[in-house]
């Protein structure tokens, strides 16, 4: 298994509070991604990174920000959590772009916003 | 915008049966297509990656095919076992940034 950890694994928070989720990899892969998984919607890309300090938006980026100050860490921040952000969040990594870039996923973080 | 569809949403088969899971995509300009397995409450495990220049890819009892012109991929599972019970997801990579577009999955149950 690819060396990807996510923390915390479970979190319950109140509406309006800031939340930061962490993804840590030991594979030295260049690309990192944050997805959310919701029933009926499948997995949707929130943000991704193509290098240290290089990030871009995905399909559902509103209300989320990211940072990557080191190759191994990719942080997802919910500035002011809302109930619509209750979801399971997955981090993924890949080494290559284009055809070769197989993605590997972390174990997920279950976030509940009350 | 790429859209990925998986039919059926759920499938129940007896042990030992060969089965095919379907995945279709609307934009044929893909870099590759990846199949995943997800067990309840777990993350995604990559099963097979088919490059856009390939027609099929095999791993053990699994065989995935890709037909870009028709926008279809299939995952063939031979001699199914109860341990194959899981949700199977396909995802297509299009555009820059290695972005994957996922289908909503097929939930497979293999019964004894």
- State mean pLDDT of chain B (0 to 100 scale): 94
Q: Kindly, what is the distance between the CA atoms of the first and last residues of chain B, rounded to a whole number of angstroms?
A: 41 Å
Biggest sheet features of chain A: 7 strands, mixed
Task: Give helix % range of chain B.
Answer: under 10%
Q: N-to-C SSE series of chain B? A: EEEEEEEEEEE
Gist?
The complex is a heterodimer of chains A (114) and B (112). Chain A has 114 residues and is an all-beta fold.
Textual characterization of the structure:
The complex is a heterodimer of chains A (114) and B (112). With 114 residues, chain A is an all-beta fold. Chain A has no helices and 11 strands. In chain A, the strands form 2 sheets. In chain A, strands 2, 4, 5, 6, 9, 10 and 11 form a 7-stranded mixed beta sheet that branches. Chain B has strands spanning 4-7, 10-14, 19-25, 30-38, 44-51, 56-59, 62-67, 72-77, 86-94, 100-102, 106-111. In chain B, the strands form 2 sheets. In chain B, strands 2, 4, 5, 9, 10 and 11 form a 6-stranded mixed beta sheet that branches. Chain B has no helices and 11 strands. Chain B has 112 residues and is mainly β. Chain A binds chain B through residues 31, 33, 40-45, 48, 50, 56, 58, 90, 92, 94, 96-108, and chain B through 31-32, 34, 36, 42-46, 49, 51-53, 89, 91, 93, 96-100, 102-105.
């Amino acid at each position: 298994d690819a060396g990807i950890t996510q923390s915390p694994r479970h979190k319950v928070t109140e509406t309006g509070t800031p939340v930061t989720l962490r993804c840590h990899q030991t594979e030295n892969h260049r690309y990192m991604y944050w997805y959310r998984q919701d029933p009926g919607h499948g997995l949707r890309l929130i943000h991704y990174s193509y290098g240290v300090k290089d990030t871009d938006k995905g399909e559902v980026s509103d209300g989320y920000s990211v940072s990557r100050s080191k190759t191994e860490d990719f942080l997802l921040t919910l500035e002011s959590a809302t109930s619509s952000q209750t979801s399971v969040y997955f981090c993924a990594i890949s080494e290559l772009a284009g055809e070769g870039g197989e993605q590997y996923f972390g174990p997920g973080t279950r976030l509940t916003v009350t | 915008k790429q859209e990925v569809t998986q039919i059926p949403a759920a499938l129940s088969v007896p042990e030992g049966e060969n089965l095919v899971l379907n995945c279709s995509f609307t934009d044929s300009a893909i870099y590759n297509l990846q199949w995943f397995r997800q067990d309840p409450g777990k993350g995604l495990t990559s099963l097979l990656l088919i490059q856009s220049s390939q027609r099929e890819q095999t791993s053990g009892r699994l065989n995935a095919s890709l037909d870009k012109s028709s926008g279809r991929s299939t995952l063939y599972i031979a001699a199914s076992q109860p341990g194959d019970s899981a949700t199977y997801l396909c995802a297509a990579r299009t555009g820059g940034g290695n972005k994957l577009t996922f289908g909503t999955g097929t939930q497979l149950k293999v019964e004894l």
